[in-house]
Amino acid sequence: MRILLICILSTFIFSTSIAQNPSFKPLESFDAIFARAKKENKPIFFEAYLPNCSHCMAYDVTLKNPKIKQFLDKNVLAYQLDISKRENGLFLRKQKVYVPSTPSFVMLGPDGKPWDVQTMGDELNTVDGILTSLRKAIDPQKRDEATLKKYQQGAREFEEMLGLANFTRMTLDTVQNIEIVQQITEALPKDKYESELGFLLIRKVMLDNNNPLFDHFINNLAVYRKTNDSVTVRQVAENTLMSTLFSSRSRKFNPERIAGIKFGLKQIGLTDAQIANRCIVLEVLIDLDKDQLATATDRIKSYYQGKEIPAKEKDFWCKWLTRKADPKNPCPLP
């Protein structure tokens, strides 16, 4: 009976997963897709999905509508992209596209550069909703790529900047994202900081903690927990702090900036030991960037509190501590 039940469940899962949708072309090699796009001078549309995603399955039904198929056939080269497959995830990464949730609509120009990236919620899962999203994604005046160009030329429309914050996050344009989010948070009235919009900005588009909205958030976590799931509030805070800490720009941070990150990690409940574990590598690298070898060495020794350093960890530190020294000089760690 148990084996029969497993077989039935397996059959059900298989039957409800996403099969080839007639509105889309069969996925071929990415080189072939780009060659076709260049030849036909058409943008490339990918619906990024996961085979076990219930929202994706619901979208798949709507995407089979003849009106949508007609639009796709006429205007784009359309494919479905299963991002559970490693090669597909690597492809998106190469095109500088990050998909935080599924389904997402990714529109690339014929040259492969991102035109528009949208995470698709249930509220858009209608024929009209999908067509509106697709039309916007290919519109040379309204697609995200065009809106970003207008922003770079001086446009500062608040609603457009909200969309751009999401676009720059999903296209891995961290520098532009930080700038846009900074301007949004400066324009957002303080009485909106604790609103649904304020929390959404932190949760969905914020990659750096150095702005007035996040400062308010990290100092008033209890307030946000009253209207949002407490686990989500903690995760949101941690995600922003860690994306800041692990960014390439972090090696330029001054001690005050790092202290602010440590304060935030303390606010969400991390112990001093956990905070030190997350920050030690960055702090040592900053010391070494300043040619402060003795300071870096003392920092490492303090981190281990007089205990013997495990062999692999010692090898790691010694490589950094001796990288500018004469190879014959011994590692300064005991």
Automatic annotation (TrEMBL):
Q: Name one Pfam family in it.
A: Thioredoxin_7
**Keyword flag Transcription regulation:** no
According to the record, the segments passing through the membrane are none
Keyword check for Ribosomal protein: no
Keyword terms, alphabetized: Signal
The protein's matches in SUPFAM superfamilies, at most eight in alphabetical order, are given as:
Thioredoxin-like
Residues in the signal sequence = 1-19
Origin: domain of life: Bacteria
Query: Under which name does UniProt file this protein?
Result: Thioredoxin family protein
Q: What is the lineage of its organism?
A: Bacteria, Pseudomonadati, Bacteroidota, Cytophagia, Cytophagales
